[in-house]
């Protein structure tokens, strides 16, 4: 028995929760690494400024972690509440990575608590750095395991269905599905990249607002270097992801690229609008799709028309694809220009307009993350478990999903506003100049 | 021991962990809010903040671990409980979210906001109430199958005296556990005024706790006779738990042996919780779902057990380190030196 409105509202509520969660989750995966790098550079260069960077980031990080944890708990439970039939099936095959994710989370939670509350307890900063390693590993590993679950939904394997019964279950095979390597790598690397650019945006903004302390300059240079490395890595792994799609999920790539007719010498479509069949106002890059898909300009790429009508994802995912890729490329350029400019001493690096570009880079990276996830998720419609279970079969039959949607909307508004207000207040009341003064005066820099 | 029993025992243990450390957290929030309202926050706030700050995130993980593990070992629970619990579990999530985030917001952003403290305290009482609904439902009689899908009868649920006695038990247990623990913690911190106040709370909440337990026994004997009979079979376990309870209250009353009081408190709840769990056997949801027909396939079960053992090898030393640094570190407990970021 399906309940159509419950299916619809379950989809909306899941999308809402995940879209809100991934903002904080991405920061939660990326920022511990940045803190670790800053702490390490601080120790290596014996430069108090980097240690302070780590300290101030850690303080802001607590707020984002809190929201990440509670929304993560929400989506964890919502999976069973909204998609009970899916979880019943998936629980048999993919419970292992879900379970491992909790361990990673546990590990991170314990060491984050220790890290945050032992700031001045260890004379030796290296000991303190050691505490950050499990935090960063735990954060990244929970992203790895949960992405494995998502990869499984895209490329299910490790079981057989005989007469409606699950048999021959192989948990490890299910985890090592073909979607896993590219998905996990892309998620983790883009999280690092986003965290770097978000923190850089904050530094650039402070400088625009008149705080010209050398602390911000050091932060910016460090973050843009780290960001550049991960932005390039994201682009390379993104390319692998496209090659994965060609092999295993051709309908997703075809829909994202509005590639209707199977053919050789396929061109890449940039921008444009479509009403289903006809593509207008688009820039077509000849051979580029064949190159993207097969590293061969004349290779054949499967078109959308090869697939049954009811198994095609919505065509609007093309816009999401464009958004994600354009922002990614833009960020590679911006960070490369900054790093090169710094090394070569080009003057535009310090210009106000360029700092505004860096400020824009933070929110843009978050938008790219959202667009990328929507692309990945909507791109496997109508399946929840590709080729095995459709979304409509998985949803709850309960009649109350619409009310829950309203309640959760309210919750996310409160959490969103609350976190921004608290973060702003935290740093405005204690600017870096103040904290450096306080530390010199031996007050510990607390508030 | 079969894998089914092993699975449910592990999950039960984590639920117990959540019950105890969650209670400390929820009760602390309530006492703190009560202190703020009655103008006594200076007595308790420091003690509570010092304990909660490094552990609040860990508390949450115990709950996540429990429900993720449940789906892993017993995937069919997703079908039965997922569908029926949409409303109560969503409300619990929202309350947990408000709590968790506002704790961080308040301790890092704007300390001492009255509205936050009040919300924080209230949420702490409502969460155990909304979560305990699961226990009520598991006793059967509230879920019927319509077109092969489970449907929860809210009317029957909210008019049942069993529901309300379990809610009362949950709240009383939360406040009692929390008060005894914090008495011990405040005593270790050498904070006499806080110890005195918390000791009073512990004694106040011991009464309702005992009454609620008796009430539930009575209701259960009418609601689920099969379960009640099995409880009578292992009555000695409950009896032992009751004795521990009496000794704990006696020590707190006499203001001595707080270490023993804390140990006996944990013993009391462990015994009672496992005795309840054993008597619930073999049902996960009476009478629709047993631990045998809801169990996952053997391959996954073994994989989960292996993952669990490996995970514990990481967790136990980490938790030990956490306790050593914050719970058993004299300087930290006494608030000497401000160490936080």
TrEMBL record, chain A:
Annotated transmembrane regions: 20-41, 61-82, 94-117, 129-153, 184-208, 220-238, 316-341, 353-376, 403-423
Keyword Transmembrane helix: yes
Coiled coil: none
Membrane topology recorded in Swiss-Prot or TrEMBL: Multi-pass membrane protein
Subcellular location as annotated: Cell membrane
Keywords from the named record: Cell membrane, Electron transport, Heme, Iron, Membrane, Metal-binding, Transmembrane, Transmembrane helix, Transport
Entry similarity comment: Belongs to the cytochrome ubiquinol oxidase subunit 1 family.
Protein name: Cytochrome ubiquinol oxidase subunit I
The organism of origin for this protein: Viridibacillus soli
Biological classification of the source: Bacteria, Bacillati, Bacillota, Bacilli, Bacillales
From TrEMBL, chain B:
Family of this protein: Belongs to the cytochrome ubiquinol oxidase subunit 2 family.
Membrane topology recorded in Swiss-Prot or TrEMBL: Multi-pass membrane protein
UniProt keyword list: Cell membrane, Membrane, Transmembrane, Transmembrane helix
Spans through the membrane: 12-34, 55-74, 80-98, 118-142, 162-186, 198-218, 234-253, 260-279, 299-323
Signal peptide: none
Subcellular location: Cell membrane
Stated name of the protein: Cytochrome d ubiquinol oxidase subunit II
InterPro entries according to UniProt: Cyt-d_oxidase_su2 (IPR003317)
């Amino acid at each position: 028995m399906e309940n159509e409105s419950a299916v619809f509202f379950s989809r909306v509520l899941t999308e809402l929760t995940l879209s809100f969660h991934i903002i904080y989750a991405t920061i939660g995966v990326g920022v511990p690494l940045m803190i670790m790098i800053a702490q390490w550079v601080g120790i290596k260069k014996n430069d108090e400024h980097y240690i302070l960077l780590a300290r101030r980031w850690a303080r802001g990080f607590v707020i984002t972690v809190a929201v990440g944890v509670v929304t993560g708990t929400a989506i964890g439970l919502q999976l069973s509440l909204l998609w009970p039939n899916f979880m019943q099936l998936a629980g048999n095959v993919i419970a292992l990575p879900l379970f491992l994710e909790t361990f990673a989370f546990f590990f991170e939670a314990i060491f984050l608590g220790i890290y945050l509350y032992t700031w001045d307890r260890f004379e030796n900063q290296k000991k303190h750095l050691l505490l950050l390693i499990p935090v960063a590993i735990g954060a990244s590993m929970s992203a790895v395991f949960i992405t494995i679950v998502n990869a499984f939904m895209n490329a299910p394997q490790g079981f057989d269905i005989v007469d409606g019964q699950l048999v021959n279950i192989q948990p490890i095979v299910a985890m090592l599905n073909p979607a896993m390597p590219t998905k996990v790598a892309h998620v983790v690397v883009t999280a690092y990249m986003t965290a770097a650019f978000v923190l850089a945006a904050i530094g650039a903004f402070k400088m625009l607002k008149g705080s010209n302390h050398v602390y911000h300059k050091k932060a910016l240079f460090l973050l843009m270097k780290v960001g550049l490395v991960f932005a390039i890595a994201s682009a390379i792994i993104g390319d692998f992801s496209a090659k994965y799609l060609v092999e295993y999920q051709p309908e997703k790539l075809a829909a994202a690229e509005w590639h209707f007719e199977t053919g050789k010498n396929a061109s890449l479509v940039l921008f444009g609008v479509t009403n289903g069949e006809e593509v207008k106002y688009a820039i077509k890059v000849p051979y580029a799709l064949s190159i993207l898909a097969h590293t061969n300009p004349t290779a054949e790429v499967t078109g959308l028309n090869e697939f049954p009508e009811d198994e095609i994802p919505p065509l609007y995912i093309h816009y999401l694809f464009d958004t994600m890729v354009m922002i990614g490329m833009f960020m590679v350029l911006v960070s490369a220009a900054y790093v090169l400019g710094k090394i070569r001493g080009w003057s535009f690096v310090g210009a106000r307009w360029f700092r505004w570009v860096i400020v824009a880079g933070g929110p843009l990276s978050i938008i790219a993350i959202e667009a990328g996830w929507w692309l990945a998720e909507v791109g496997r419609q109508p399946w929840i478990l590709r080729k095995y279970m459709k979304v409509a079969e998985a949803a709850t039959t309960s009649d109350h999903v619409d009310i829950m949607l309203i309640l959760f909307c309210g919750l996310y508004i409160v959490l969103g506003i609350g976190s921004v207000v608290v973060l702003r207040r935290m740093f405005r009341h204690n600017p870096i100049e103040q904290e450096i003064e306080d530390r010199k005066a031996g007050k510990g820099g607390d508030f | 021991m079969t894998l089914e029993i092993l699975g449910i025992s592990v999950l039960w243990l984590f639920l117990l962990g959540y019950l105890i450390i969650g209670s400390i957290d929820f009760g602390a929030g309530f006492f703190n809010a009560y202190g703020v309202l009655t103008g006594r926050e200076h007595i308790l706030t420091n003690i509570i903040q010092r304990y909660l700050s490094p552990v609040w995130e860990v508390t949450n993980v115990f709950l996540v671990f429990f429900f993720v593990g449940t789906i892993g070992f017993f995937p069919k629970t997703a079908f039965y409980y997922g569908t029926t619990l949409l409303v109560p579990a969503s409300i619990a999530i929202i309350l947990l979210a408000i709590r968790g985030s506002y704790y961080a917001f308040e301790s890092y952003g704007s300390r001492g906001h009255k509205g936050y403290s009040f919300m924080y305290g209230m949420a702490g009482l409502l969460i155990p109430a909304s979560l305990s609904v699961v226990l009520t439902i598991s006793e059967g009689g509230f879920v019927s199958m319509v077109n092969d899908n489970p449907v929860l009868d809210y009317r029957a649920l909210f008019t049942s005296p069993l529901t309300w006695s379990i809610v009362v038990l949950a709240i009383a247990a939360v406040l009692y556990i929390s008060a005894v623990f914090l008495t011990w913690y405040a005593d270790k911190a050498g904070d006499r005024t806080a110890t005195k106040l918390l000791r009073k709370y512990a004694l106040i909440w011991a009464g309702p706790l005992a009454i609620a337990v008796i009430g539930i026994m009575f209701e259960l004997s009418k609601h689920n006779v099969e379960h009640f009979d099995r409880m009578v079979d292992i009555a000695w376990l409950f009896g032992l738990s009751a004795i521990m309870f009496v000794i704990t209250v006696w020590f707190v009353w006499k203001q001595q042996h707080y270490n023993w009081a804390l140990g006996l408190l944990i013993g009391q709840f462990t015994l009672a919780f496992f005795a309840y769990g054993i008597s619930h056997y073999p049902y996960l949801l009476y009478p629709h779902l047993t631990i045998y027909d809801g169990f996952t396939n053997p391959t996954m079960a073994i994989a989960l057990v292996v993952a669990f053992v490996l995970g514990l090898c990481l967790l136990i030393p980490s938790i030990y380190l956490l306790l050593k640094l914050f719970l058993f570190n004299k300087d930290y407990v006494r608030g000497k030196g401000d160490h936080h970021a």
